[in-house]
Amino acid sequence: MATTAQFRTCPDTGFRIHLAADKLIKWNAVTAVVFLLVGGLFGLLVALTRWPAVHLLPADLFYLALTAHGLDVLLVWIIFFEIAVLYFACSILLNSRLAAPKVAWLAYWLMLVGAVMTNIAVLRGDSSVMFTSYVPMQAAPDFYLGIILFAVGALFACFVFFGTLVIAKQEKTYEGSVPLVTFGALTAAIIAVFTIAAGAIILVPTLFWSLGYISNIDTLMYKVVWWGMGHSSQQINVAAHIAVWYALAAILFGAKPLSEKVSRGAFLLYILFLQLASAHHLLVEPGLAAEYKIFNTSYALYLAVLASMIHGLTVPGSIEAAQRKKGLTKGLYEWLRKAPWSNPSFSGLALSIIMFGFLGGISGVMMGTEQLNLITHNTTYVPGHFHATVVTGTTLAFMALAYWLVPVLWQRELVLPGLAKWQPYLFGIGMGLVSLFLMGAGTLGVPRRHWDMAFSDAAITHDFPAAAFLMMGLNGVAALIATLGGVIFILNMVGTILWGKKKEAAPAPQAAPEPQPAAAAGAYGGAGTMAVPGTFVLALVFLAAFVLYYFVNWKYLASVWGLS
Amino acid sequence: MSIFPPQKRIWWNEPVEKSEIIWIVIALVWALIMFFMMPYWHLTGDQNLSTEAYRIKPDVFAARTEAFAEKFKVGEEGETGIPVVRPPAGGDVYMLARLWEWWPVLELKKGESYRLHLSSLDWQHGFSLLPENINIQVHPDYEMVLTITPNSSGEFGVVCNEFCGIGHHTMVGKIYVKE
Amino acid sequence: MAEQEPGATGTTGPAAGSGGQGEEPIPFMQQVLDSPFLLLFIGVTMPTVFYILWGVINITSIPLAN
């Protein structure tokens, strides 16, 4: 049993914080941010090389930078930060001690050693095989070993999360059901277990293959199982950043879920169906049955998309309800106009919701449709889509949380509050444009992971239209804007942790939660809930955009060569 | 609040607000429409990817492609030495992918159908037919057979869009479609 | 005791307003959503069966070229 001496009480929120959890959350979050910096800079190099007029790196370094970029941001930054979110959701939110801090530290070191090992393998230049490392292209053994160590570490961290749920219940540190945010984190952790298991199943034999103990890995089998990890790891993000959305709505507005049943039901749909979408990557492979593709790519009957559309209504809806309760009831949108748009926690949240839905969500469903994938597969449309989901969706949500969490955990004030106001707009809009330009170039057929779309040293060439070159150039400009936003974020976080002014007892206005907002919140759901007309209209706008874009692409598909 | 446990011991039975219910119904209907679009297109659409595929050894596929090219060769593509092959309409057509070329160059007739056999001799490659923007993954040890029907004429590029090493960006092939 | 299962710790929750119904059994779906290990089992089994196993069986049934 933990003694009270192992806890401190957070002066801002009143939460009892287990000191071991406190330290682990901090270390995981800081490590995450460091890898965001490294991976982000590799990303800038990639964008500057794909800017035809700049064409910065030679081919070998370009492919090296692209491999490092994918690994460091898609895997390392995101998962380290998610582990911090998991520990936050199971220990702080449940007022519980963290189960087995020693295991959590072992997890941390395994992940760190693994991440560094894989980075070294990539930087050495003999493992430029991309994030996906499709066989029979082969990387050095330590490339695979590093990812395996990282995954095992992340699995241990999930065990710590589940263990903490068990002891918190046993020690009755909370009453009734876990908070919705913890439930969202649970969803992320469940997806993470499947993700890591799939990764281990495929990368362990691949490691032995690279060592020469196994002669052959089937390319299709590899792809099926690898994407069980590769895509599901991004589904951890979806579940985690939606949990973060709910958390931020609660922290910033004292918002309560419109309905516990609906929001948790939506997370249950994620648990059941979200991971099936790994099949998005197999839609144009040889020999896979149409039934298999249709069932899996549609998450059964698009039930996980249904869940996302529900969260898309309930998160802003809960904010609208909370704002209306405070008297901001004029018209459809007084609640939204008078939201704290200069608080980076809010602007980051708002941009994350909008761009995840409009850019990432719609494009993802379109491209994940069995036949429509034919006109998008492996073009820059694909990175266009996932920069909208993983960067403007997940990364921006995590940044928004960090603006609140870092000052609270470290008890320091932000060092650059003025720049912080602009940061989510710079980063979010810059990245939103990156997504749009990459998607635009993709509809013109520009291949992803490609060093030279001018084919200047190829025996046979293809002429892309001028618009395609223009879009890749604009993509570079947008990436510069986003990088500026990213650098401001990292300076702010690192500066705050190292040199931020120690907080007075009163929380900083910039990123403070409503003091003890529990008192303000009424009963859950139903009759106690305000109608949310503004959010509902926004949802209908979203639906109209979705329907229109979806069928425009069917029309485009209908015009290409017949295939059967 | 979402960061605290639900206040009511039993929250499952709480009534759900009307706009949420309406939205769930709308979203579910849309989800079902999107789901049924895929089987519907299998029945009525002209662009469905074939699921016909075979396991094949790379040397066997290479031999078949070479025999095909030799039989229907009509010329060479510029200085490259790659044969231009004009197969009879309705027949079998082979194209192989290897580091870093698509081989051979094809000459097809608009409006005719061909059974296209695709496979790789080494790593995975991406068959990206441009400017149509039709994209198909090509694996070693697997042969995919699909029926293609060009509905436009002209010169089409086949760009590799699966990363395949340092020469990836030079891997371009051609398909000519004549009226 | 059936309601000793998941969620039973909530019987004496802070929500005094609902204290009167303390003995009412927790609805089935709420119990499911309060069972992390059941959800873990479901969440791992579903994609393993429908995505991985089905996919692997599909691949192994691709015929040899004649």
Describe this structure in words.
The complex is a heterotrimer of chains A (564), B (179) and C (66). Helices cover 67% and strands 1% of the residues of chain A. With 564 residues, chain A is mostly helical. Chain A has a domain of 240 residues: Cytochrome c oxidase-like, subunit I domain (Cytochrome C Oxidase, Chain A, Up-down Bundle). The radius of gyration of chain A is 23 Å and the shape is globular. About 4% of the residues of chain A have low confidence. By secondary structure, chain B is an alpha+beta fold. Chain B has one domain: Immunoglobulin-like, CATH 2.60.40. In chain B, 23% of the residues lie in helices and 36% in strands. In chain B, strand 4 and strand 5 form a beta hairpin. Chain B is elongated and about 80 Å long. Chain C is an all-alpha fold and 66 residues long. Chain C has a domain of 31 residues. At the A-C interface, helix 4, helix 5, helix 6, helix 8 and helix 9 of A face helix 1 and helix 2 of C. Strand 3 of chain A pairs antiparallel with strand 10 of chain B, so a sheet runs across the interface.
Mean pLDDT of chain C: 77
Just give the CATH class of the domain at 14-253 in chain A. Answer: Mainly Alpha
If you average the pLDDT of chain A, what whole number results?
93
Distance between the termini of chain C: 64 Å
Spatial order of strands in the largest sheet of chain A: 1-2
Q: What is the CATH topology assignment of the domain at 14-253 in chain A?
A: Cytochrome C Oxidase, Chain A
Unreliable spans of chain A are 507-527
SSE sequence of chain C, one letter per element: HH
